[in-house]
Amino acid sequence: VQLQASGGGTVQSGGSLRLSCAASGFTLDNYAIGWFRQAPGKRLEWVSAINTDGSSINYEDSVKGRFTISRDNANNTLYLQMNSLKSEDTAVYYCAKDKRRVHRTPYDYDYSGQGTQVTVSS
Fold first, then answer.
1. Using one digit for the tens of pLDDT, what is the confidence trace for 39-61?
2. Helix or strand or coil: residue 18?
3. Residues 94, 76: contact at Cβ < 8 Å?
C-alpha cells in the first residue's frame, strides 16, 4: 500500500490550495479515505473523510464550509480543495486509508504516506 500526498505550498491567508493523494497497491474503491494534518508541536488531527463512492463525506468542524474532499477511483486519486485558508491550517497534511468502506472514527485508518506541507502566512 502506498499513499503519496502532494500539492502543498505557501499561500497567504484567504488563499486556496488543492492537495492530491495518489494511491497504489490496493483497490482504492473498496475503502474510505481520509485526510489528517499535524501542526508543529501539536497532535495529529483528523480533517476529512470520504466513503468508497463519495456518497458520505465528513469534515472536522474547523474546516467545514472551507475544505472539500473528493475522489477519483478510476485514477486512484484523492483530493482536498482548501479555500479561505487560515494561519491555523498550517500543518503537514497526510492522506490515509481506512479499514472500512465508510468512515466511522479517526482510529480505523491503517495506512498513510508521506505528507505535504501547507503553510499559510498572515
1. 999 999 999 999 999 999 999 99
2. strand
3. no
Sole residue written with cell 500500500: 1
C-alpha cell at 52: 468508497
Query: CA 64, CA 25: separation in Å to the nearest integer?
Result: 31
What is the three-class DSSP state of 88? Answer: helix
Is the per-residue pLDDT at 120 higher than 90? yes
C-alpha cell at 105: 472514527
CA angle 25-50-73, nearest 5°? 45
- Side-chain half-sphere exposure of 81, counting CA atoms within 13 A: 7
* pLDDT digits 0-9 by tens, 18-39: 999 999 999 999 999 999 999 9
The helix (run of H) or strand (run of E) holding residue 69 is: strand 67-72
What percent of the chain is modeled with pLDDT above 90?
98
CA distance 32 to 8: 22
